[in-house]
Protein backbone atom coordinates (compact mmCIF):
# COMPACT_ATOMS: atom_id res chain seq x y z
CA UNK A 1 0.00 0.00 0.00
CA UNK A 2 1.13 3.51 -0.66
CA UNK A 3 2.52 5.06 2.54
CA UNK A 4 1.45 8.65 1.72
CA UNK A 5 -2.18 7.73 2.49
CA UNK A 6 -1.51 6.47 6.02
CA UNK A 7 -1.45 9.97 7.48
CA UNK A 8 -4.81 10.81 5.91
CA UNK A 9 -6.82 8.33 7.97
CA UNK A 10 -7.49 5.73 5.26
CA UNK A 11 -7.88 2.13 6.36
CA UNK A 12 -8.50 -1.08 4.40
CA UNK A 13 -10.85 -3.79 5.69
CA UNK A 14 -11.45 -7.30 4.33
CA UNK A 15 -14.52 -9.49 4.77
CA UNK A 16 -15.40 -12.79 3.11
CA UNK A 17 -18.73 -14.64 3.18
CA UNK A 18 -20.61 -17.29 1.23
CA UNK A 19 -24.19 -17.86 0.18
CA UNK A 20 -24.99 -21.56 0.47
CA UNK A 21 -28.47 -23.08 0.32
CA UNK A 22 -30.00 -19.60 0.57
CA UNK A 23 -28.14 -18.82 3.82
CA UNK A 24 -25.15 -16.56 4.50
CA UNK A 25 -22.02 -17.68 6.37
CA UNK A 26 -18.91 -15.75 7.45
CA UNK A 27 -15.90 -17.54 5.95
CA UNK A 28 -13.45 -15.77 8.28
CA UNK A 29 -15.38 -16.33 11.51
CA UNK A 30 -16.02 -20.10 11.89
CA UNK A 31 -18.85 -20.06 9.31
CA UNK A 32 -21.01 -17.97 11.65
CA UNK A 33 -24.52 -17.62 10.24
CA UNK A 34 -25.24 -14.09 9.01
CA UNK A 35 -28.35 -12.04 8.20
CA UNK A 36 -28.88 -9.71 5.28
CA UNK A 37 -30.83 -6.52 6.02
CA UNK A 38 -31.60 -3.24 4.29
CA UNK A 39 -30.84 -0.10 6.30
CA UNK A 40 -32.76 3.20 6.34
CA UNK A 41 -30.79 4.41 3.31
CA UNK A 42 -31.82 1.28 1.37
CA UNK A 43 -28.26 -0.07 1.52
CA UNK A 44 -27.80 -3.82 1.96
CA UNK A 45 -26.02 -4.70 5.20
CA UNK A 46 -24.68 -8.10 6.26
CA UNK A 47 -25.39 -8.22 9.99
CA UNK A 48 -22.65 -9.93 12.02
CA UNK A 49 -20.05 -10.00 9.23
CA UNK A 50 -16.54 -9.75 10.68
CA UNK A 51 -14.24 -7.20 9.03
CA UNK A 52 -10.47 -7.43 9.37
CA UNK A 53 -8.31 -4.35 9.17
CA UNK A 54 -5.32 -5.06 6.93
CA UNK A 55 -2.20 -3.13 6.07
CA UNK A 56 -0.30 -5.42 3.70
CA UNK A 57 -0.91 -7.71 0.74
CA UNK A 58 0.37 -10.80 2.56
CA UNK A 59 -2.38 -10.51 5.20
CA UNK A 60 -5.02 -10.16 2.47
CA UNK A 61 -3.72 -13.31 0.76
CA UNK A 62 -3.79 -15.22 4.07
CA UNK A 63 -7.41 -14.19 4.68
CA UNK A 64 -8.42 -15.26 1.16
CA UNK A 65 -6.75 -18.66 1.69
CA UNK A 66 -8.46 -19.08 5.06
CA UNK A 67 -11.87 -18.22 3.59
CA UNK A 68 -11.42 -20.48 0.58
CA UNK A 69 -10.49 -23.33 2.92
CA UNK A 70 -13.77 -22.86 4.80
CA UNK A 71 -15.98 -22.75 1.70
CA UNK A 72 -18.57 -25.43 0.96
CA UNK A 73 -17.23 -27.76 -1.74
CA UNK A 74 -18.21 -31.02 -3.40
CA UNK A 75 -17.28 -33.31 -6.27
CA UNK A 76 -18.73 -32.88 -9.77
CA UNK A 77 -18.14 -34.63 -13.07
CA UNK A 78 -15.85 -31.77 -14.10
CA UNK A 79 -13.90 -31.12 -10.89
CA UNK A 80 -12.80 -33.19 -7.92
CA UNK A 81 -13.34 -30.19 -5.66
CA UNK A 82 -15.93 -27.70 -6.88
CA UNK A 83 -17.39 -24.78 -4.94
CA UNK A 84 -21.00 -25.35 -3.93
CA UNK A 85 -21.59 -21.76 -2.83
CA UNK A 86 -21.38 -18.21 -4.06
CA UNK A 87 -18.50 -16.43 -2.31
CA UNK A 88 -18.15 -12.67 -1.85
CA UNK A 89 -14.83 -11.10 -0.88
CA UNK A 90 -15.15 -7.43 0.01
CA UNK A 91 -12.42 -4.82 0.32
CA UNK A 92 -13.70 -1.68 2.05
CA UNK A 93 -11.74 1.56 2.16
CA UNK A 94 -12.69 3.62 5.19
CA UNK A 95 -11.55 7.01 6.39
CA UNK A 96 -11.43 8.07 10.00
CA UNK A 97 -13.47 11.13 10.86
CA UNK A 98 -11.02 13.99 11.56
CA UNK A 99 -8.20 11.44 11.59
CA UNK A 100 -9.54 10.11 14.90
CA UNK A 101 -9.65 6.33 15.32
CA UNK A 102 -11.97 6.65 18.34
CA UNK A 103 -14.95 7.49 16.09
CA UNK A 104 -16.38 5.03 13.54
CA UNK A 105 -14.67 5.25 10.17
CA UNK A 106 -16.78 6.17 7.13
CA UNK A 107 -16.79 3.89 4.08
CA UNK A 108 -15.45 5.80 1.08
CA UNK A 109 -15.26 2.86 -1.31
CA UNK A 110 -15.99 -0.84 -1.51
CA UNK A 111 -14.86 -3.43 -4.04
CA UNK A 112 -16.59 -6.82 -4.15
CA UNK A 113 -15.20 -9.92 -5.84
CA UNK A 114 -17.89 -12.56 -6.45
CA UNK A 115 -17.24 -16.21 -7.27
CA UNK A 116 -20.43 -17.89 -8.49
CA UNK A 117 -21.01 -21.58 -7.83
CA UNK A 118 -21.96 -24.05 -10.52
CA UNK A 119 -20.01 -22.45 -13.33
CA UNK A 120 -18.84 -25.77 -14.80
CA UNK A 121 -19.57 -26.03 -18.51
CA UNK A 122 -22.20 -28.60 -19.47
CA UNK A 123 -19.73 -30.32 -21.81
CA UNK A 124 -17.36 -30.89 -18.88
CA UNK A 125 -19.91 -32.60 -16.65
CA UNK A 126 -21.57 -36.00 -16.75
CA UNK A 127 -25.29 -36.75 -16.90
CA UNK A 128 -25.15 -38.57 -13.57
CA UNK A 129 -23.82 -35.56 -11.65
CA UNK A 130 -26.55 -35.80 -9.01
CA UNK A 131 -24.97 -33.41 -6.48
CA UNK A 132 -24.76 -30.55 -8.98
CA UNK A 133 -28.40 -31.07 -9.96
CA UNK A 134 -29.45 -31.20 -6.30
CA UNK A 135 -27.58 -27.97 -5.51
CA UNK A 136 -29.47 -26.24 -8.31
CA UNK A 137 -32.82 -27.35 -6.86
CA UNK A 138 -32.38 -25.73 -3.45
CA UNK A 139 -34.61 -22.78 -2.56
TrEMBL record:
GO molecular function: ATP binding; microtubule binding; microtubule motor activity
Ranges of biased composition (kind: Basic and acidic residues): 121-139
Pfam families the record matches: Kinesin
A cellular component annotation (GO) from this entry: microtubule
PANTHER family attached to this UniProt entry: KINESIN-LIKE PROTEIN KIN-13B, KINESIN-RELATED PROTEIN 6
Protein name, UniProt field: Kinesin motor domain-containing protein
Keywords: ATP-binding, Motor protein, Nucleotide-binding
UniProt xrefs under InterPro entries: Kinesin-like_fam (IPR027640), Kinesin_motor_CS (IPR019821), Kinesin_motor_dom (IPR001752), Kinesin_motor_dom_sf (IPR036961), P-loop_NTPase (IPR027417)
Record organism: Nyssa sinensis
Family from the record: Belongs to the TRAFAC class myosin-kinesin ATPase superfamily. Kinesin family.
Disordered: region residues: 120-139
Residues covered by the Kinesin motor domain: 1-139
Any one biological process term the GO annotation gives: microtubule depolymerization
Superkingdom, natural source: Eukaryota
Amino acid sequence: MHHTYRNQGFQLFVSFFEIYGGKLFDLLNDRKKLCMREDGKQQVCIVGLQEYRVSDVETIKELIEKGNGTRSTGTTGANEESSRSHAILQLAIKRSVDGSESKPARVVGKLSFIDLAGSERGADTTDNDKQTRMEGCRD
